[in-house]
Amino acid sequence: MSVIYSIGALAREFGVTTRTIRFYQDEGLLSPARRDRTRLFDSRDRTRLKLILRGKRLGFSLAEIREIVDMYEAPPGEAGQLALLIARIEARRARLLRQREDIEVALRELDAVAARCAGRLVSLDRDPETDRDGDPRQDPDRDMGGEPDRESDSEPLGHRGRRGPAVVR
Predict the structure, then answer these.
(1) What is the arithmetic mean of pLDDT over 97-101?
(2) Domain membership flag for residue 106
(3) Please, what sign has the CA dihedral across residues 123, 124, 130, 133?
């Protein structure tokens, strides 16, 4: 006599929700027997669920998982399933290696930008009165003549009495 599993028992065993199992059933990946409204999963369904979840962890699509899992029960059987699985694993591995290379490039670029920013911060701490080229900083509260811009100081926030963007202080 074969072992029968409830949907709740499988959900607990594999750490998924019952909704996940119902989803795989709706997708045709699992086909439990029914007694009234109760789903009755057998060892075949348990094995299929285990393979489905492994496939998802490895990054396979549901279509790929379906192809691999369904091949077990159809010609050429397990040998064909294993050959297909090896091909899918090799393709997935190649994609992951390309992604890793892309991530490593992005990390190097981030490190370089962070180092430049840190260096700039150090130079600002050393001499806050000069810009990065060593030229004296312009005080944004002074106009070109070096005097405070009294006209804009008396204007309401966001007023555009002069040409250019609104100045908010």
Answers:
(1) 96
(2) no
(3) positive
